[in-house]
Queue: 3 jobs
Job 1
Amino acid sequence: MKKRIIAWAVLLSVCAAALGLWCSAAVGKTARTLPCEDEGLILSITTFDGKSESKPFLKCFGHTWIGLDNRTGHTVYLKDRAIPDGEMVTFSVWAVSGLSGLLFDLEPCYIANYGRYTGRLSLSTNIGEEQLKVIEDYMEQHDKWTVNKNCSYWSVHLWNAVVGEEGCPEDPGFCLHARKN
């Protein structure tokens, strides 16, 4: 009798665990999706947790950056930088010796040349051209990297300044963490 009770308890536990994993996987996939057209200005925030690059005794804390993809049919300008139709620019703050601060287009080079940022996650949404001014103003006021205001802090706060609360799905992962900063 004890063996049957134990067998049923184990079977019930396995079924409950499988159901829980299945449900949480389905929720995560839909909760991280924002409506985004393939035209216009597409703002993206991309994050990498550093796990794939960490080694014993050497912890990689990851990186977060913003991307702006121009699909408007004409050139747009961000500060004094022309972004032709069909092109994308990335930017974030870095702690590079001698260049600590806002830098452009480093991330695509790291990805293409060194295979970096494996396992990155991103979130994209359309923005209007009038929101370029919000990005420019943020860049003017926040152009430095510091320990307390690193790339993640900088990118998340810029994202929230441009997109607002409606740009974050009610998911306890990516964006909820972003709002806590």
Job 2
Amino acid sequence: MLFLIIVSGCCAMKQGKSDPFRIADAFYYAWFVDETERGTRIELTIDRVREEICFESLVFRNRRIPVTAYVGPGFVRLEAFLNFPGSVLQDRSEPAEGEDRLYFLRNGQESSMAIDSFRREETKYIKRE
């Protein structure tokens, strides 16, 4: 049985070799509930994470968005949500320039790593209950 520990922002795993971690997978998809409630969900799977690493945010499409980390056995899953204007959901993103990047703290110092590419998944309709 797989248990995930939810950690908002920070997370630590086993020591890596040369890089502070490896981005094993990166994808995003658009989601919508109705015409006013829609956005984009971004997910990264990270492995080989060094102990001193704490994930903070990512830049996606010129928006810097806080991430939430889910720690599993041997990996960390990072999630971020970009909500469209007019949504009742809080938009926690802020303008950013440059390429898509993952920001993290390493021994208390902010650093970043480029995200080479994202895989786009199909749009998902979320049904209200």
Job 3
Amino acid sequence: MFMIDSVRLNIKAGNGGKGCVSFLRSKYHPKGGPNGGDGGDGGNAYICGDPSLNTLLHLKFNSTIYVESGVHGKGKNQRGGNGAAQVIKVPLGTEIWQKMGRNGREFVADVTGTSPHLVAEGGHGGLGNARFVSATNQEPVLAEKGEQGEQVVLFLELKLLADVGLLARPNAGKSTLISRCSAAKPRVAEYPFTTVEPVLGVVGVRNKDFVMMEVPGLLEGAHQGVGLGQQFLRHAERARVYVHILDGTSEDPVADFHMLNNELKQFNPALAEKPQIIGVNKIDVTEVRESQIELAGRLTEAAQEWKPGNSGNSWETPVMFLSAVTGEGVPELLDRVMTVLDAFPKEVVEETVPVAPRRRDYLPNKVWVEDGVYVVQSESLQRLAAMADTRDTRVIIQLWREMERRGLARELVDAGIEAGDTIRIGEVEVEWF
């Protein structure tokens, strides 16, 4: 089974609960005032990192997520309960992108820690009729419908967090090397493409440790997707140092080195400018040992061609020989890796966590005529109208007052409305009188 490192999520945040229309009626208060409570807020959706996860498999077949809605308000000024938030856990190193328009998308966050990221905000609860009491309206019969929760489509892309990336053509010995110097247990066999997904291992050197990642074998054209190369190279983007493992028995190890660097450059030019170490494997083979000096010279010369000229980097690309099978040269390689890592410390990336809930953009209040119907755009008024009993004259009068308060009644008059004309507020239509 291949590693699941990208998924699409459809998330619907919780709706706000409805406000309540209620009046105090008791033996000693036969004509008590309004006491309808507000609806509860809908639950938010969050995404946070979980260090115990290393794949998005748990979301692949659970890609539609509905968050709990708020509870409706009740009489006696009882506010409805808020909907429970939904926390979606992902591996560290996951990038969050939000779909925008038909084919566009927008970057949301890079999950590098365990702090939650708000990705979909629940709707606010509707106001109960007790909220609409005023000096001119002692008996309000209006209450709001709760806001709809945000609905978003997200794309999650996992880019594993590692300090060192092992790059090589298939069957060069990467799996044997990482299994020798860490507790990782990748499949090792004599045929190509034994490793079909990235493998992480923790390596200890000089009483310190670093994370090494084996990137599955790369072929020419990997940056265009050949042999799943794009998926594999994406994971290598975060590495600070690349170790090129070259098969010393290959027909042309120098050409293999050029091919690997070219794939890095074609995928992302910045990757080819990162510090590199060349490790020639299979020094235990006689022909490789005999050609060691000549091959080291050719590789050193080849490495100079890839050294960035204007990037400000002053690193040299060392050429080292090793045998992943016998262990010869492996301690020296790891020691050199640690030296390079010490010279290029991790960049501190602060998580972009919102300090306060996002505020959604509301449509402005306005009026226009459409096919002879006067359309009123006002989100708060639409929530009132959605729960209004338009057969009740009191309700119509109070809706009219709410339109006056928002300045919409004046806009209707200016637009030429007359008695008997139809007003559309959301999905509700009423007659002007």
